[in-house]
Amino acid sequence: MIRFFAAPHDVTANNIKLSAEDSEHIRVLRLRPDELFSVCDGNGTDYICRLSLNKKEVIADIVDKFQSLGEPSVKCRVFIAYSKGDRLDYAVQKSVELGAFEIILFESGRCVAVPRDIPKKTARLQRIALETAKQSNRGIIPKVTSAGKFDKMIEEATRHSALTLMCYECEDDMHIKPVLEQHFSDFHGQKDQNNKPVSVITGPEGGFEPNEVVLAQSKGIRIVSLGPRILRSETAPVVALAALMFHTGNL
C-alpha cells in the first residue's frame, strides 16, 4: 500500500490535507477515488485513506486509523561518526529500517572526511530518512542531526539515555549481548522497555582513539564488542541496532 507522511496539524477528524509534493505524487500515480493508501502523522498513528472528490486540492478522506505497527517498543538513538563517500547514506537508511528513533552524526579524531557544509549534509540524510520511513512502514520520521565534536557528542549521548553503549573494535572482554541482557533483565513489557531509551555509538573508518574511549568510560558509557570480526563503519551501527532490536523482541 502506498504510504505518505503528513504534519499532525493537517489531520482532522475526517480527512488529511497532503503536502504539495505528495499531492503531485498522487496525480502522477493516477490513484482512483476507490483506491486505498496510508498516511502517517509522524507521531505513531496510521490512517487508511481514499481520495476525496474535491477537485481543487488533494484531500485524503480517513477510512480507518490505528497505531503504527512499525515502531519498536524500545527507543534507540544511534550516534554515527562521519565517514567518506556514501557510507553515511547506507548507515542512515538501514538504521531507519531497523527502527532507530534518532540518528546523530559527530566528528571523531580519526574521521577520514568531515562535510564542509554540515547542514546541507544532514538535510540530505534527513531526506533519505523520510523516504526510508515510508518504505519501511515507520510511524515516525527519525531526525538526523549533528552533535559536533566528540566531547559534545558524549554529553548528548548520556543526557537522555538510561544506557549508552560505545562499540569498540579493541574491546575483548565485554560483548554487547550480556550488557543488553543485564540492562533489560528486570523489564519484560513493552512499556517498560520504552521507558529505558538506549544510545549506541559507533566510530569512523579508523576506529576510536584510546583517549576517546577513556573519556567515554569516565562518563559511564559501556564499552562493548560486536564480535571478533572488524566491521566497516557503515556496518557497525546496523549490527548494534539489530542486536538491540532482536534482544528486545522488535525484530
Topology:
Elements: E1 3-5, E2 15-17, H1 20-29, E3 36-40, E4 45-51, E5 59-67, E6 76-81, H2 87-98, E7 102-107, H3 118-135, E8 143-149, H4 150-159, E9 163-167, H5 176-183, H6 190-194, E10 198-202, H7 210-218, E11 222-224, H8 236-247
Parallel strand pairs: 1-3, 6-7, 6-10, 7-8, 9-10, 9-11
Antiparallel strand pairs: 2-5, 3-4, 4-5
Helix pairs in contact: 2-3, 2-8, 5-8
What would your notes on this structure say?
With 251 residues, the chain is of the alpha/beta class. The chain has two domains: 65 residues, Ribosomal Protein L25, Chain P (Beta Barrel), CATH 2.40.240.20; 172 residues, 3-Layer(aba) Sandwich (Alpha/beta knot). Helices cover 33% and strands 24% of the residues. It is built from eight helices and eleven strands. The strands form two sheets. A six-stranded parallel β-sheet has the order 8-7-6-10-9-11, sandwiched between helices. A hairpin with a 4-residue loop joins strand 3 and strand 4. Helix 2 runs parallel beside helix 8 and helix 5 packs parallel to helix 8. It is elongated, with a radius of gyration of 20 Å.
How many distinct domains? 2
Spatial strand arrangement across the major sheet? 8-7-6-10-9-11
CATH superfamily of the largest domain: SPOUT methyltransferase, trefoil knot domain
- CATH class of the largest domain reads Alpha Beta
* Strand residues, percent: 15-25%
CATH topology category name of the largest domain: Alpha/beta knot
Chain-averaged pLDDT: 91
Distance between the termini: 21 Å
Counted by DSSP, the helix tally is: 8
